[in-house]
Amino acid sequence: MGDVGDVFGQLVNVMETLRGPSGCPWDREQTHESLKKYLIEETCEVIDAIDDQNSDELRSELGDLLLQIVFHAQLAKEEGVFDIRDVIRGISSKLVRRHPHVFGESQVASAEEVLHRWEEIKAGEKGFEHRTSILDGVPRSLPALLRALEISRRAVSVGFEWPNLDAVVEKLDEEVHELKHELQQGHKDRAAEEIGDLLFTLVNVARWLGVNPEDSLRQMIDRFAERFRRIEEAAHKSGRRLEEMTIEEMDAVWNQAKEERRNNRV
User: Fold this and answer.
1) Domain-embedded: residue 137
2) Residue 189 lies in a domain
3) Do 207 and 218 fall within a single domain?
4) Half-sphere exposure at residue 241, Cβ-oriented, CA atoms within 13 angstroms
5) What range defines the domain where residue 168 resides?
6) One domain, residues 221 and 190
7) Which of 179, 196, 211 is the last residue of a domain?
8) Whether the predicted pLDDT of 265 surpasses 80
9) What is the CATH number of the domain that holds 156?
10) DSSP of the chain, one letter per residue?
11) Inside any domain, residue 138
């Protein structure tokens, strides 16, 4: 196995060649803006590989994601802004600075204290002095459930919290009641707001349970897709189009798939 610096340098050189005068026309046309969608896609594919517990795919997808980082750094180098060495130096320095309990003399008693110290150190760094709210710095482009979770966590860190889980569940019941009321009144815009309130409250229930709501929803979508494909298979086996199945037939296949999954988990 070669030195990490050697193999990483090889990747950087490949990227420079692709962007060079005799390189690839497609690579030479790319910009930070045009590459954004690929950065998102590659990140999602890494998450899929983790969820599937597929080590081969994870290795491959991490390579694709790393390529995107090297690509953006190469563009910045050509612009004379920074290069990949600046990126690496920056993150290395940041990690050492934010872990004084590892690289310094400080001591911590728990992971929670580590996170608290991390936020304190970060708040004193250059570039953070303009932030006036504890909520500043949460990326707006985060998936909505993850953004809601982070916003909630930050508010809780200064004491803005329900006294217990039962109180959060009571709030959930309240939001369901308010949504039903707006639906009964035919207030579409108000119902949309109540759906948002309901989702945010569900995120807080998940936080109290130590559950990542984004993972929970993605897993539910996977279960839905698996069961729905069973319905499609049943229609195909019966020689009919899906639209020709009755809702009762669909429900029967759905419930059978659900029961089989439940039994496999026992």
Assistant:
1) no
2) yes
3) no
4) 2
5) 144-211
6) no
7) 211
8) no
9) 1.10.287.1080
10) ---HHHHHHHHHHHHHHHHSTTS-HHHHH--HHHHHHHHHHHHHHHHHHHHTT-HHHHHHHHHHHHHHHHHHHHHHHHHTS--HHHHHHHHHHHHHHT-HHHHSS---SSHHHHHHHHHHHHHTSTT-TT--STTTT--TTS-HHHHHHHHHHHHHTTT---SSHHHHHHHHHHHHHHHHHHHHHT-HHHHHHHHHHHHHHHHHHHHHHT--HHHHHHHHHHHHHHHHHHHHHHHHHTT--GGGS-HHHHHHHHHHHHHHHHHHH-
11) no
Question: What residues contact 202, with CB distance under 8 A and at least 6 apart?
Answer: 172, 213
Those residues whose C-beta lies under 8 Å from the C-beta of residue 210, and which sit 6 or more positions away, are none
Residue pLDDT, tens place only, 169-213: 999 999 999 999 999 999 999 999 999 999 999 999 999 999 999
Q: Is 258 part of a structural domain of the chain?
A: yes
Q: How far, CA to CA in Å, does 78 sit from each of 17, 20, 31, 221? A: 13, 10, 11, 42
52, two tokens: 């599937």
pTM of the model: 0.76
Number of domains in the chain: 4
Instruction: Tell whether 25 and 62 lie within a shared domain.
Output: yes
Tokens representing 253?
A: 């296949």
Structure tokens at 5: 């610096």
